[in-house]
Amino acid sequence: MKWKLPKLPWSSIRIVVGIALLIAAGVTYSMWWPPLSKWIDHTLISRRKAPAGEESSDPHVGGAPNVEATSLMLTPQSRLNLGLTDEYLKPVELTTYSRAITVPAVIVPKPGRSQIVVASPLNGVVTHVHAVTGEAVLPGELLFEIRLTYEDLVETQTLYLKTLSELEVENREITRLEQATQSGAISGKSLLERRYAKEKLEAHLRSLREALRLHGLSDRQVDAIGNDGKLLRDLKVIAPDIDHHDESEELRLSQNPYRPVSLTSSGMAVLQESENHKPLVIEDLQVHKGQAVMAGEKLCALSDYAELFIEGKAFEQDVPVIANAAQRGWTVDAVFPGVSGATSVTSLKLAFVGNSIDPDSRTLSFFVDLPNQVMRDETNSEGQRHLSWNYRVGQRLELRVPVEQWENQIVVPVDAVVQEGADWYVFQQNGVNFSRVPVHVKHRDQTSAVVANDGSIFPGDVIALKSAHQMQMAIKNKSGGGADPHAGHNH
Fold this sequence. Notes:
Layout: H1 10-27, H2 29-47, E1 71-73, H3 76-81, E2 89-91, E3 94-109, E4 115-119, E5 124-129, E6 136-137, E7 142-148, H4 151-183, H5 188-214, H6 219-228, E8 234-238, E9 252-253, E10 280-283, E11 292-293, E12 298-303, E13 307-315, H7 319-328, E14 332-336, E15 343-348, E16 350-357, E17 363-371, E18 374-379, E19 385-389, E20 396-413, E21 418-420, E22 423-430, E23 433-439, E24 441-444, E25 448-451, E26 462-464, H8 468-478
Helix pairs in contact: 4-5
C-alpha cells in the first residue's frame, strides 16, 4: 500500500512558509540586521537634499543633515568630570517650595553676647600683660597683673586692720575687768564702759567690711586680710565668663590662685574647653606694661563669635512680606557669594523684626540667627591658641525671605534644567545613558526651579541635579551641529 500526502490548500502553504521564514529571520537576526540598517540609513541620508540656499558651510559635514540626538552616554570618568556624584544623582521627590524675595544683608555681632569689655576695677599700674591680641582664652585664665595704687582701698584696708587690732585689745581688757569685778576689786562701771567701746568698734568694723565689699572684695578676701594681717596689693585680671556669674567672679588679689593664658616651659596646664566654658578671642588690647590705669578703664575686649546675627535690610514695600514670614514662623535662607559660586545656608530662624524704619535709607532691619563654626583651631610653639571662624562680622550676603509656599512640588537646583529655545529640559538617568526629557518650568529663581508634575518626570525618577548646560552642549556636538562658541558667555 502506498501512502499519499494530503493535498494542502495554497493558503495553508503560505502560512507555513511565512512562519518558517520568521523563525529563520529571528535566528539569524544578528547577522543580517546591522548591515541592512546601515544600508537603509545611508540610502536615506544620500537621497535627502538640503533646501535651496541653505548649503552647509562646514567642510567637515559633507552635506549630512543635523539629526539631533536625545540621549547621552556618560562613562564614569565623564560623570566625575561633570560633578555628577551620588549627591547629584538622586530620585525626584515632592517637596514644599518657598517663593521668596531677596534682600541685602550683613553679619553683625549679637549685642551684649558677642563681645565683653575687660576693664580695670581699681586704680593701679600694669605690671604684666599675659594676653596677646588674637589669642583664644577660656574663662578664668589670667590676662593682666596690676599693682594697686587706689588710695581709698589702701586706707580702708589699713583702717580695717587697725580696727581689728583695737577690738582684740578691747576683748582682752574686758576679760581682765570681768575677773576683777567678780573679786570686788573694781566697780562694774568700768566694765560697762569697755563693753560700750567694744560695740562701737564692732559697728565700725562692719562698716569697713561693707566698704571693702563695695571696692570689689569678697567676704573671703576680707577675712583673709584679718587672718593674714597683710594688705592686698596686687590685682590679677582674668577672663570673665559670659553666662556664669558666681563668687568666682571676685577680684583676683594677692593670695588668689590663677590660671595662665598659655602653656609655658614650666608645664602650666591650660583650661579644658567644655560646654560651659567657650573660647574667647582677645581683641582691641589697649594697655602695656608700666601703664597707669584708672578704675573702669578699658584693658581689652573679648569676642565670642559662636552665635551671630544676620541683619537684613528690607525696603518699605517688603515690610508686609517680612512681617508675614515672622508671623507664620517661616525659616529664611542665606546666600553667600564665593569664588567657586554662591553657597547657601538654609532653615535659619528669624529672630525678630525691628519696629522702626531708618529715616535715611528708608529700610527696615530684621535679624536672623546664624550659628557659627570654627574653621581653624591651632596652637603655636609658644602655647598661644588661635581660632578662625567660618562667618565673620561685616561679611555681606543676601537673605531669601519666603513670600508664599507651594506644597507637593518637584523642586530641583537651577543647574538641573537647561533652556533651548522655547523648551526646557532635564536629563534622566537610565543606566549609563542620560535621556533629555522636555519639562514645563513653572517658576525659577537664582537657586531653584519648580518643574510641573505633569507626567514628564515622576517622583522616583533619577535625574542629574547639575551640569545640564554642559550635557546639552554635548548632545549638540554629538548631533553634528557644532557647539556655539559664545554659549554661556556674555560680551
